[in-house]
Write a structure and sequence with these properties.
Blueprint lengths: L6 H9 L4 E5 L10 E5 L1 E3 L5 E6 L3 H9 L1 E8 L5 E13 L4 H11 L2 H10 L7 E6 L3 E6 L1 H12 L6
Antiparallel strand pairs: 1-2, 1-5, 3-4, 4-7, 5-6, 6-7, 6-8
Helix pairs in contact: 3-4
Keywords: Oxidoreductase
Protein name: Pyridoxamine 5'-phosphate oxidase
Pfam families: Pyridox_ox_2
């Protein structure tokens, strides 16, 4: 069994600025797997997961059709950790609120980069929409304790013997 994170820890982890991987069912053909794509997202503990994308992108069309999606965020550093959430789309904002778009850019980029990004992509404001998802199902893993057991076993300070 994976070492799961307690609820407050997984919510704090998801709230940190990480690139998420969005997954949505892709019914366009019998041999297609779900669409899996990296995205910027926003989340506050207890709230909705927010993702922004172009109105006519394949992921937006699939999200509208499916009415739900999953998102996984991970820490690739040791010890490895991840949080995955899945749930229904609760709202679609069309067009995107300029303040939300700016907040998302500032979440992921330093101030100077965010300003340049927002100026260079100002036209996207007319093309972007926002999907909100209410997390229903959570999966998480935090291998810190697991890794500590290995470290202690290797140094003779504990672990199974």
């Amino acid at each position: 069994m994976l070492p799961a994170m307690p609820s407050p820890d997984r919510e704090r982890f998801l709230a940190e600025p990480r690139v998420g991987v969005l997954g949505v069912t892709d019914p366009r053909g019998g041999d297609r797997a779900p669409l899996i794509v990296p995205v910027w997202y926003d989340y506050e503990p207890g709230g909705d997961v927010i993702v922004q994308m172009g109105r006519e992108t394949i992921k937006a069309r699939l999200l509208r059709a499916a009415g739900r999606f999953s998102l996984c965020a991970q820490d690739e550093g040791r010890p490895y950790r991840y949080v995955s959430v899945e749930g229904p789309v609760t709202a679609i904002q069309d067009p995107v609120d300029p303040a939300l778009r700016e907040a998302m850019a500032r979440r992921y980029l330093d101030p100077e980069e965010a300003t340049g990004y927002l100026e260079a992509t100002a036209g996207q404001l007319q093309d972007d929409i926002v999907f909100r998802m209410r997390p229903q199902h959570w999966r998480s893993a935090d291998f810190a304790a697991f890794a500590a057991d290995f470290t202690e076993a290797g140094t003779g300070r504990g672990g199974a013997g």
